[in-house]
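Action item from last week, closing it out:
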Amino acid sequence: MMEQILGRKNLLEAWQRVKSNAGAPGIDGMTVEAFPAFSREHWPRIRSALMEGTYDPAPVRRVFIPKPDGTQRPLGVPTVLDRVIQQALAQVLTPRFECGFSDHSYGFREGRNAHQAVREVEACWKTGHRHAVDCDLKSFFDTVNHDRLMGQLREKIRDRKVLGQIRRYLQAGVVLPDGTREATPQGVPQGGPLSPLLANITLDPLDKELERRGHRFARYADDFLVMVKSVKAAERVMASLTRFVEGRLKLVVNRAKSKAAPLKQCAFLGFQIGAQGRAVWTAKAHAGFKRRVREITRRNRGHRVQDVIDELKRYVTGWLNYFGISHTYTALLELDEWVRRRVRLYHWKQWKQPRTRRRHLLALGIPREEVHMATRSRSRPKGDGLPSSAAMERSGMATGTGG
C-alpha cells in the first residue's frame, strides 16, 4: 500500500489538492509556493524514509480561531510537506472505508454535504419524529482514543508501514503560539487532510449502533441529531447513547450542551426546524451574519470602498449559498436591503466633507433637491441624512453583492 501511496500519479494529485487549498505555513515557515523547489532537492530522501518506516512528521502549529460565543477553536497547521503526504494517504485510504460508511453520515464525503443532512432532519419531522437527542461531543477532535482508532484502521489496512505512519502523525505533537511543544497522547488535530477521514472512521461505530437500533438520525462530522417520536423515547435514547459514546468509543459527552428536547428546540449545522417543518437559519446564525457584515463595513476602517464591497460580496455570497435554502424570498430581501444600507453609510463616511458628498451624489444622478437636503444635514450618518435608498439604487449606487 505504501508503494501505491507514494506513486507518482497519486502524489501529483495530492500536491494539486494542497496547492489549490493554499493555506498558511507550518512550523518550518515553508509556503506552498516554496514547496516545489524544496521537493526537487529533498524528495528522494523523504520517500526513502517513508518506505523504510522511519519518517518523522513535524509537529503541527497550533492556532486558535475565535468562535461567536467568545471561546476559541484550536486548529493544527501541518507543514506543507506533511499536508502533501497526508493527502496522498487519504486518497488511497478513503475508498477502502467509504463503501462501509453509513448513508446517514454527510460530513467530509464526496457527493455529500450539510444541506442533505438538514433535509434529512426535515424529512424526519414529516414522518412524525418530532423529538430529538442533541448530543454534543466535548472537544471531539482532541479526545479521540488512539489505540481504539488504530484498532479500527487495522481492520482494513495490513501494511504496517502505513499504520505506523498514521500513528506518528497522531503523536507528532503541537507547537503552541508561545513556542512550547505539547505531546498529543490522544486526539486528531483539526486542519490536516487526513483528519476528516479519521474522524469518520472513529464515529462509524456510532452510526452502525444507531442503525442497528433502527433510529432515524443525521450526522455531519461530530454534529448529529437522533430523531424519535416521543419525549420518553428521547430521554431513553439520550441515556443509552451517553453510555455507548463514553463506554465504547471512549469519548466525552458534554452534558451541559446535550439534551433530549422537541426537535424545534434543537439547532443543527446552523439551522432549526421552523413553521410547517421547514429548516430555517437560527437566530445565532443570523446574528453572526450581521456581526460580520458590521465588521466589514465598519466606517472607521479607512479601506477603499471597492475593497470593502469585494470583501463583503465574498462573505455575503458564501453565507447565502449556505443559509439561503431556508427562508422566504421576503426575508432575503430584508437582509439585502440592510446590507445595501451599510454600504451606503460606508460611502457617506468616506466622502466626509459636504462638498465631496455633493459632488459624488450629483455625479450619480441624485436629484438636486435631495442632494441639497442630504449634504446640509449635520446628523450622524444613521440613514436619515442620506438621499432615499430608492434614489440611490436608481442611480446605480448598489453594493455589488449580487442582490
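Closing note: Residues 388-403 have pLDDT under 50 and may be disordered.
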